[in-house]
Design goal:
The protein is mainly α. The protein is about 65% helix and about 5% strand. It is built from eleven helices and five strands, in the order αββααβββαααααααα. α1 (about 5-15) crosses α6. The model is unreliable at about 1-15 and about 165-175 (pLDDT under 50). The structure holds zinc ion. Zinc ion binds near residues 141, 145, 194, 199 and 238.
Length: about 270
């Protein structure tokens, strides 16, 4: 039978095994929250690569992969300006194996899997008639989830929660680990339901990336206006789990004085 003592023992073991750290430096918007990490970046990036490759293969077979070349070039142009700016948050990120693709689909959706695997659904850009600044805000937000390794954090929490209901011993050295991690990681990568804290971090960091890349961060406001007006058959990832959109617009407004100088400096450099 599970005991409180066992729980504590398990938890102490887990913290010794992985522990708290932070994935990024804070940037000007301050993203330095300590994170519980029990699985490695390498494990999760490998899993993301496989999931992404499968997604590309499925779309290719259906004839929906990168069908609109002009749209693909637009999205890749935005990505090519954002990628080098990720150095503001972590030194390794500009050297990631970035991939950027567009799936023809009415869905209002976009994401960036761990390690820099970006996907846009054409419906998001076409139905909401997004300009390049607004595409940059979405991409900055999604890329920030990957920079902060929010999926890895979620998987770690799932692993810790499973430990808390009785598999702590298995995690601490027996054979169960990889299967449990694989299941938790797969669920997380497919479901992409981030916490409110994660969303807030991604909004703030994304706005800084937008500005540093020379895209107008004020587009964050118009993007949200468009999304809130949108008749959402299926809400995009950044709307999915959160009723408090107004607060998020407010946060963007409050950050504009911090990030506008970065935008203006980039514009001046041409
Ligand atoms: Zn998000």
């Amino acid at each position: 039978m599970w005991s409180k003592f066992g729980y504590l023992l398990g938890l102490v073991g887990l913290l010794a095994l992985g522990g708290c750290q932070t994935t990024t430096s804070g940037g000007v918007v301050g993203a330095e929250r300590s994170q519980l990490m029990l699985v490695s970046s390498q494990q999760l990036n490998q899993m993301a690569s496989q999931s992404y490759a499968k997604l590309l293969a499925d779309a290719s077979r259906k004839g929906t992969l990168n069908r609109d070349h002009a749209l693909l070039e637009r999205v890749r142009a935005v990505a090519s300006r954002i990628e080098p700016q990720t150095i503001a948050f972590r030194r390794d990120a500009p050297g990631w194996q970035w991939q950027v693709n567009v799936i023809a689909s009415p869905e209002l959706n976009a994401f960036c899997m761990p390690g820099g695997k970006i996907m846009f659904y054409s419906g998001l850009i076409q139905k909401l008639n997004l300009n390049d600044d607004e595409i940059a805000v979405v991409m900055g937000h999604e890329v920030s989830h990957a920079l902060r390794e929010h999926s890895r954090e979620q998987v770690s929490q799932a692993v810790a929660a499973q430990a808390a209901i009785g598999i702590g011993a298995a995690l601490l050295g027996l054979g169960q680990v990889s299967a449990d991690i694989a299941n938790a990681a797969y669920d997380t990568l497919i479901a992409t339901k981030f916490s409110r804290t994660d969303e807030s971090e991604a909004d703030r960091m994304g706005l800084e990336l937008t500005a540093r890349s020379g895209y107008d961060p004020r587009a964050g406001i118009t993007l949200w206006q468009k999304m809130m007006r949108a008749d959402s058959g299926r809400a995009p990832e950044f709307l999915s789990s959160h009723p408090a959109e107004i607060n998020r617009v407010r946060q963007i407004e409050l950050l504009l004085p911090t990030v506008m100088p970065l935008y203006e400096a980039t514009r001046r450099r041409g």
